[in-house]
Design goal:
Layout: H1 14-24, H2 31-48, H3 55-73, E1 82-88, H4 94-106, E2 110-116, H5 125-134, H6 148-153, E3 156-159, E4 173-176, H7 187-206
Helix pairs in contact: 1-2, 1-3, 2-3, 4-5, 4-7, 5-7
């Protein structure tokens, strides 16, 4: 009995990315698994994206993150550093601020992800500005939906205003940061939100292992 054919990709331009990801995960995930996850990532992003010009590129990046998380969950060897996931409603403001600042401050001590329970169409402009002012890199950030494998791969899940919509997985450390939502706020308020998050990140890093 022959194997079922691999489902067609929703955009033929995804084929190159599927091949790259499959090569990267040779011996760990089948090409069919990679293509299925890439298709799912593309469709999830397409549901909320306001601009679809870069959707193929973003889908590949989102899939790469999901495959890395899935490999971690399945016990594949990794760096051994703590994995921190920030979750807010739209993944367009607070969680993006937190992820970029932690990445900047941590110096490779953590693996950082962010996601939204109801991802927005794009990153809020003031978020990019205040991160740039702080020296953090906001380039390439985009809202991503919350997926099971990313939650299960995290050691620490930090929620920021998404309430009961955030899933709870046993064995994870959960923190809730009651940070003001910067959506639509003037730049001065967004800077205050950034500084609040930055202080919390300093405390978080102080409590993590040094290696």
């Amino acid at each position: 009995m022959s194997a079922a054919p691999t489902p067609a990709l929703p955009d033929e331009r995804l084929a190159a990315g599927a091949a790259r990801l499959a090569t990267r995960h040779t011996g760990r995930f089948s090409a069919e698994t990679v293509q299925g996850l890439l298709t799912d990532s593309y469709r999830r992003l397409a549901e909320t994206a306001s601009v679809t010009t870069h959707l193929v590129v973003l889908a590949e990046r989102f899939t790469a993150e999901r495959l890395d998380a899935l490999a971690h969950v399945q016990g594949a060897p990794g760096s051994g550093v703590a994995r921190v996931l920030f979750v807010c409603s739209h993944n367009a403001g607070r969680s993006q601020l937190a992820a970029a600042l932690l990445q900047y401050r941590a110096g490779g001590r953590v693996t950082v992800s962010s996601a939204g329970t109801h991802p927005g169409p794009g990153i809020e402009p003031h978020i990019v500005q205040v991160l740039t002012e702080a020296g953090a890199d906001a380039a390439g950030a985009f809202p991503k939906p919350l997926t099971d494998e990313v939650v299960r791969a995290a050691d620490i899940v930090i929620t920021m205003g998404c309430g009961e919509a955030c899933p709870v997985v046993p064995g994870r450390r959960y923190l809730d940061w009651p940070v003001t939502d910067p959506d639509g706020a003037p730049i001065a308020v967004v800077r205050t939100v950034r500084d609040d998050i930055d202080r919390r990140i300093t405390d978080l890093l102080a409590g993590l292992p040094s290696t």
